[in-house]
Design a protein that fits this description.
The structure is a homodimer. Chain A folds into 2 domains: 127 residues, Aspartate Aminotransferase, domain 1; 238 residues, Type I PLP-dependent aspartate aminotransferase-like (Major domain) (Aspartate Aminotransferase, domain 2, 3-Layer(aba) Sandwich). The first copy, chain A, contains 14 helices and 14 strands. In chain A, strands 2-10-9-8-5-3-4 form a 7-stranded mixed beta sheet, with helices on both faces.
Chain lengths: 378, 378
């Protein structure tokens, strides 16, 4: 089948499928980014951002993708005179480490193997040594389909007085991020994940004490400059206007659905996916109790690599799922089910997987994966 | 008149009007940014970028607005161990100074008052003192409607061996930028100016020696990382996918028109605007021989401020032009005529200006401004 983006079942780990309302919002003709209408758009976005973050605070929009939001936060909040802890158990944890080390020479990295949970005791022990100014962690490790349990470390981080800086790029609007309860000081969300807007914007939530602690980082991503402009519904530099229009529409859609409803649907789709994986005789990559609700990472079965599985989904059935990154290339595949993904997406994907495994003589019981999904529908 | 972006005559100094083909390109459903189709899009863009720059070289696409491109270039090419010259005669020259000083403690700024040409002899004298590693200049100062004459300094910069780093955000595809002839090492173009794509992307051209001289700057805007990924038609971080699709379409439009034709039309529109300004009894803000072809900056006549002129254009005639920045607020207004701006835009704008001045009893000779435009049509 020739690739046709208009009819593809689109379940990669983000960017996710975009609602046509959001796509159409970008076709508005040029606006004066310093004029009343656009200031109004920025104002509406600011009023809607608490729906996304599930909390109020100092919330910013950066014209750059998720990584720009991370650099904005780390460059202006990682302390120069105290230690920073980086927690890492996947590709994005490693990226955190790379960024943070550009801005601090006193970094302690606590790692677990990709896909394994973070060692909370080790975090507690490092915090107990003292002098930690910031703790940086990826909440949802898309690369391995794992959600890090922040409740296991949040009280200790809060108790230490360190700033709690969270990469929530694929977590926000995908899994519960309890900003206030866990005492998070900065969260970065990507536009193209749970929110289901196009890629290209980073949304940042700051606590009051984080806003007060900002020091100059990079120029383009200067959070203090952005906060100051936003007070007038303005941006310090020219914004990516069409992406702002799309963001407004995606936030309106999220408000109409409700954050809790979106999280609940994402969770149900994840539970259904995991049950279907069992029924297919396949196995999850991460430990089951740490499996992410936004993306299900599945081990390729013996003898069925990318060429026999993922590429067939794509070419034969026009279903896009994602492969593994780095050392996991060809070893796992990942089905995203966040944003506006819904039951039809899941049904057609697992139907195709049943068919592929059936043809290969590797299907334990025909129909069982689909039945597992149907049973978990609302 | 209620603001209606669908029918507005849109002549601010950028973002500029976007062709419907380019707007529609953004409504394509989500793409896998690591898949074959999107790699193809990036490949096509790379093949088309020499049309934009009028030269071949190492050319990059950054998911950030023009300022991000400037920081990318200055942070990775301004030398840490030698002097940097910054030339400044407007708002964007001052911004250059701010960015460069984040990355070097040895900066000499050569300024002229806003709207006055740069003092070339002073540049020559500073270069003659030696130890200059980079020269940074804004080619087209949108803020004051002035084009800096790079031919007056290019041979000396080249002769000194310093890197020649040019903010071409509003120059590229608006006025001639002779990258090879003038020996420019880095040019930053904005997507939303002469190219007439949406705001949100920076395009960067590097000479071979600039590409070889890159040192680590910021993480998100790391030019070496971008160059490496681009070799595989890829990006190091998630790109702003819809903006890339729009960029491809805008580059195709530019290729169909031809860079020379676009520059010629922009020049003709500028000549016509200047003649019409004369006919209205108004005066240009910059020295005439340095007036920019992309934007005409006009002094507000005595007693007719923003409220009586620019705001009336907007409210009564749905024509958007731009006011002054900083100290020039209320003192000048600026008509952009780059990108896909064309004769109808100019005719309706000067017709409205004739009407406004006529009603105020300030029009020297009815019809003369429009006649001046008509005479300069092809």
């Amino acid at each position: 089948m020739t690739f046709d983006p208009e009819t593809t079942t689109f379940l990669i780990a983000g960017p996710v499928r975009i609602h046509p309302r959001v796509l159409r919002a970008m076709s508005m003709p040029s606006l004066n980014h310093r004029g009343d209408y656009f200031h109004g758009v920025v104002g509406e976005i600011r009023e809607l951002l608490p729906v996304l973050f599930g909390a109020k605070g100092r919330q910013l929009i950066l014209s750059g993708s998720g990584t720009s939001g991370l650099e904005a936060v780390y460059s202006s909040l990682v302390p120069k005179d105290r230690r920073t802890l980086v927690l890492s158990n996947g590709n994005f944890g490693e990226r955190t480490d790379l960024i943070v080390r550009r801005y601090s020479s006193s970094v302690t990295t606590i790692s677990a193997p990709w896909g394994q949970p973070l060692p909370a005791e080790q975090v507690h022990a490092e915090l107990a040594k003292g002098d930690v100014g910031a703790v940086c962690v990826v909440h949802n490790e898309t690369s391995v389909g794992l959600a890090n349990d922040l409740t296991a470390i949040a009280p200790a981080v809060r108790g230490s007085g360190a700033l709690f800086l969270v990469d929530g790029i694929s977590a926000v609007a995908g899994i519960p991020v309890e900003i206030e309860k866990w005492g998070i000081d900065a969260v970065v969300a990507g536009s193209q994940k749970g929110l289901a807007a196009p890629a290209g914007l980073a949304l940042v939530h700051l606590s009051e004490r984080a806003a007060a602690a900002l020091h100059p980082g990079t120029f383009y991503l200067d959070l203090a400059a952005h906060l100051k402009s936003l007070e007038k519904n303005d941006t310090p530099w020219t914004p990516a206007v069409p992406l702002f229009l799309a963001l407004r529409e995606a936030l309106l859609l999220l408000k109409e659905e409700g954050l809790a409803t979106r999280l609940e649907r994402t969770h149900r789709l994840a539970e259904a996916s995991r049950a279907a994986v069992d029924a297919l005789g396949l196995s999850l990559f991460p430990e089951r109790r740490h499996a992410s609700d936004t993306v299900t990472a599945i081990r390729n079965p013996e003898g069925l690599g990318d060429a026999e599985l993922r590429k067939v989904l794509e070419r034969q059935y026009n279903i896009l799922v994602q492969g593994g990154q780095g050392a996991l290339t060809g070893k796992i595949f990942r089905i995203g089910h966040m944003g506006i993904a819904d039951w039809p997406d899941l049904l057609v994907t697992f139907a195709a997987l049943e068919r592929i495994l059936g043809k290969a003589g590797r299907l334990p019981a025909p129909g069982r994966a689909l039945a597992a999904i149907v049973e978990r529908m609302p």
